[in-house]
Structures are given as C-alpha cells and as structure tokens.
Amino acid sequence: MKEAKETILRQWSMLRKIPRHPGSVGTRELRDKLQDEGFLIDVRTIQRDLEKLSSLFPLSCETRGKANRWFWMEEATVMDLPGMEPATAVAFRLAEEYLAPLLPNATIRHLEPHFRRAREILKPERGTRLAVWPDKVQVIAGGPALTPPSVKPEVQEAVYRALLEDRQLVCTYRSKDAVQPKSYPINPLGLVFRDGVVYLVGTAKDYAEVRHFALHRMEAAMMLETPCRRPPGFNFQTYVKAEQLFAYPLSRGPIALELAFDKGAAVHLTERLLSKDQRVTQNHDGRVMVRATVKNTLELRWWLLGFCDKVEVLAPQALRDEFSAIAKRMAHRYGS
Amino acid sequence: MKEAKETILRQWSMLRKIPRHPGSVGTRELRDKLQDEGFLIDVRTIQRDLEKLSSLFPLSCETRGKANRWFWMEEATVMDLPGMEPATAVAFRLAEEYLAPLLPNATIRHLEPHFRRAREILKPERGTRLAVWPDKVQVIAGGPALTPPSVKPEVQEAVYRALLEDRQLVCTYRSKDAVQPKSYPINPLGLVFRDGVVYLVGTAKDYAEVRHFALHRMEAAMMLETPCRRPPGFNFQTYVKAEQLFAYPLSRGPIALELAFDKGAAVHLTERLLSKDQRVTQNHDGRVMVRATVKNTLELRWWLLGFCDKVEVLAPQALRDEFSAIAKRMAHRYGS
DNA sequence: CACCGATGCGACAAGTTCTGTCGCACGGCG
DNA sequence: CGCCGTGCGACAGAACTTGTCGCATCGGTG
Hints:
Two copies of one chain form a homodimer.
Chain A: H1 6-17, E1 25-26, H2 27-36, H3 43-53, E2 59-64, E3 67-72, E4 79-81, H4 86-99, H5 105-122, H6 133-136, E5 137-140, H7 153-165, E6 167-173, E7 182-194, E8 197-204, E9 210-214, E10 218-227, H8 236-242, E11 249-261, H9 267-271, E12 279-282, E13 288-297, H10 298-306, E14 311-315, H11 317-334
Antiparallel strand pairs in A: 1-3, 2-3, 6-7, 6-10, 7-8, 8-9, 11-13, 11-14, 12-13
Helix pairs in contact in A: 4-5, 5-7
The structure holds a DNA duplex.
C-alpha cells in the first residue's frame, strides 16, 4: 500500500474520468488514466470500486462483448462541490432564461444538467423555506423573441470535436439555394456565434476559398481522421475581424454622440449608461440632451432606431445625415 | 457500525454542507445536519473527516474562540461530477460572453467558479490537444454594447436572501432625483430583471403603494428578522404582467404580420425564423414578402425599426399606420 | 473447431482504516 | 474559580481494502 487515504482521492478521480452516457470507459482504460496521475492500482480494485460507486451514484455499465463499459447515466444531474448555494441557483435560472434565445439548442443541452440542479435547489420542498422561483423573480428579456434555428446535437458534437482536435469533417450540407443537400469534406477553421446562429468557418474540399457554413443547415456531420488543412497564413481572429459579413463596427475610432431625447424616453439612460463619460442635461425645450463617446457600430444605429421619433441625432453630422436619409426614405415608402 | 460503504457517502454529504468562504459551519452543526439525513455519527469522526478532507480539497478552517469553523476557500473552483466535458466547457464560455452585458456583476460573480472551471478545461496544456478557445471560436453578441450598472455584491446578497426567506430589508436607497440617500425598511415582493437592470419590487415602510427599487441604486442593504408584509391580495406574477413599466406585450392575441423586405435584407429570416408558420415568397418587384403570425410586442417594433427603410409593413393595417406615423414624425424632425 | 488472450469475478488473508469511547487540555463565562 | 463546550491524542476491536489466485466466458484467429 503506497499511502493512507489514497482511496477517496482515487475514487474521486475515477468518478471524474467517467464520461456521460453517450461516451463510456473500460476498466483498463481507467487504470491507465489513473496511473498517469500516480495511482498504481490493480484492475481488480477498479472493478470493485466501480461496483461500489455505482450503488451510490447514478453510474451504470453495459457489457459489450466481454468487456464492461462504464458511464454516467444520461439524466444524472450534476453533483458539484462546494454545493450550489441559492444565490448561484438563481443566477443559473436567470442564465437559462436569457440564453434560451441566444444559443442553439444543442449548446444549451450541455448546460441542462446544471440548470436542472439549480431548479432542484430552488424547489420549495427542500427544508429551507425558499420561495418558489417564479413567484418571486421575473425576467423580461430584452432581445427579440425569435427562436434560434435548431441544430442537430450530433452535428454540433462532430463539429466541436473536429474543430478542437484539428481534424477534417465530412458534412452533408443543404446550402441556401440548393434543394438537394450535398456531402463533402470541410477543413474547420473556427466557429462564429452571432445571435442565435452558429457558423462554421472553413474551406471545402481542396478549395482555398474560406466559406461559412451555418450549423443548422447541416444534415449530418462526421469527424474524419485526416488532419485539418488550413490555408497558409490564415488566422481566425484577424479573419473574423476583417470579414465583411461579421463586421458590425463601422469605423475605427469612437464618435462623439449627441442626442436629444423626448421627455420620458431617456429614462433608460439613467439606468444603463451608454458610456462612462456620458453626460445628461435638461434642454430648455423640455428635451433631454445626452452626450457620450461611443463606438460607431451598426448596433448603435439599431438601438437609436428603436427610439424611432423619440430621439434626434444631433451629432456627429455624418450620423445625423444617415438618419435624415433614413427618415426621408421611410416617409416616402409609407407616404401617400 | 450501521452499514458498509457509509463512509464515502457521508463524507460526500459533508462536503456539500460546507459553504463557500464568507459562510462557515461548525462541527456540531454538521453533525445535526448529517443526522437529519440519517448518518448517526460521532462528532469526533466529523472532526477527523474534516481534517482528512482538508488535505484533499481546498477546505480550510478558522478558529473562533475555541470552536473551529470550516469553509471552502473562496477561490476554489467548482468540482463537478460527472467531470465537465469540452463541449460543456465551450457552452459555459459562450454563456459567459453572452451574459456579461445582460446580468449584473453581482449575479455573474456566482457563476464565476463554473466559468473558471470551463476555462481550465479549455486550456491547451491539458494533455488533450484542445485548441485555445479564442483561436477557434468567436462570439459576436447581438445586443447593444451597453454595460449593465454595477450592483454591490453585499446588496444583492441581502436582497436575494430577504426575498427568498420572506423577510423585511433595511435599505439605503439613492433615488433618482434625491442626492442624499435615505434608509428605510422595504417589504420585498419580487425581483424583475430587464436587460441589465435589476429591480426589487416592494413596499416601503408601511405604505401600501408598490414601488420599484433599482438594485444598483442601493448603497447598502441588510436583511431583518421581521417577516415581510405583503399587501392583501398581491400576486407578483399578475402584478408584473399588469404593470405598465414592465409590460412590453401590447395586445393579447397574436397578429398576422405581412412584410416586404428589400432584397438582401431578408437574409436574416432564412436563418432565424420569425415564427413557425413563417412563409417567404419572392415578389415580382424583387422584394421579399414575409408572412408570419407573431406576438404583438414592443420588441417586434424595435426589431422592425432596426431595418429602417429596408422593410415595409403591409399588414396588419394598425401596425402599418403606426409605422407610417413614425416615419412621418421622423422625417419631420430631420426635415427641411 | 480448437486455442489463445483478454476480461470479469469469487475467494482469501494480511494489512489498513474507521469509529466509538476515554481522558485530558483549553478558553470563555458566570 | 469552577463549569461547560470544544478540540484532540490514544486505544482497541470491527470493518474495510487490496493484491493475488484461480476459474469461467467470450471473441477472434489460424
């Protein structure tokens, strides 16, 4: 026997090395992994440990041929240490509500065990007289109520793996115009998340051209053994920054914004700052003047447009001209 | 000895009962808690367990007078079971990036240990040749780049606790107009999260009037022993739905939306559906017609306004009139 | 079809660990 | 000062752990 109290630590390590259901692990495999961590232990002991632990934890095994393969049951909630505190559980519930429209289902699915745990904690039956969550907390999400397109879990899994392990990927892709989906190998270079949509950035077959593949348009995907080939000199970060499609920022430097809000419309700004140097003053005509230095982005325009006629852009002149033009075109469109 | 293999389970339970640093727990306390779960165990054993476990886990104790008080070190990362898989770690990283502008710092703080764990998993040094996260994945958040106002962690903590335990709260509040903050008791009735701002809904002192207190305007907050008194017949859920300030939905039923997008502007819609029954057709004038049944919300208006002159609302007539009026007013504002 | 290697598992015995119990040492409090 | 609550060292018997064997199965291979 090497050391005292090895046991618990080893069992702990073992538990962490067992994957959740779709995956699984064999006993020898486990022994090797444990050996890497310095636990010199007999296979027999591992068998015994597994058997014992499976009566305490939601572990299960499946006999493939002769060998036993162990895994966590798929629906096992996360067991975390230190135990989740109510405040953390509340944070998780909030995260769940906020993220639902922002992340694809297949990604959310991975967080699900944590969300489940949070819900358990917030259940009122749990001794502590914690109130029922929805009776006390409400989320009013700001984003539009669009639902993100659904991505097949297997597809996302394959894409993630290929990307992280730097391998090629065979993919059945239904492109926007084509009715019939086509299969071909892709060299995955990076992932872009925008709103609820996920794009795989990569090159198809042997082409040098970098393309975007929306994950929800992939009917199937499978990682290959062949390593990913990347165009010489390609850098994902600079690519994303440079690429038109994803580039929202419109000019490099910040702009000195000057706005006049109708009374009442500017309440938001006293809650959420537009920038750190934001200054708010009352105008003589009753309107609220706001000055702030902000980034010149498309998002800024969307945000301003959301106030429609309740805000007037005073400066910079270029932005004012933009809005003036927009207003003219809109009026023309609906006019007479 | 009651049963075999009790030990690990008991130690596991014990670990979960120990709070993270600001909190702490004593040995007798632990014994009582464990007794509630059916572990009839001597205090001495608990002392021994703690000592042993503290050499394996980031546990620590602090001697207050004579008694030892145990806790998890504040910076301890979450240890979860089953161990976090790379795909889950990616999901957490995404969650982190998306939530930063949506949740107040004090709430995010509670998720931090999980985020930290995810970052650890995605570090490249971990044997597996997982690529460095930022080299492979980019998030382009859709929301505006406003930063949520910062909330003091102690304040949020106190508010959460008071709310969940149904107690009163003493609060030093700096109201919008007043320069000097004032202290008074509040009966907490519920929390509302909207964009990055958190509001406590409640009544002040003995008043019956229900008010909203923004958490970032609270300089201090402390839970009281006195139970929360709620206005007779008050129901948080119906209150939030009814209340003007928070009520975004504008009419009960859904509306049959009909839009004409300029060519190119409707690309989004082929990615993200507006509704399940959405139908997209090509018009003879080159524009893209979209028909969908959607909820009649303010958000819908914001979203449509974001397209400014690139979309025309055709139906329902009421909405078209709204937009027509908005366009006219905007043009007038910037006109001449 | 037989043989080989890999795997699982029951049994065993020696060695470790666990646990209730005592007794002693402190520190605070009345 | 004495009492109480707490921590902790020591002890012994019971319970548990673990390496080792040996046997039974299963799959694949020649």
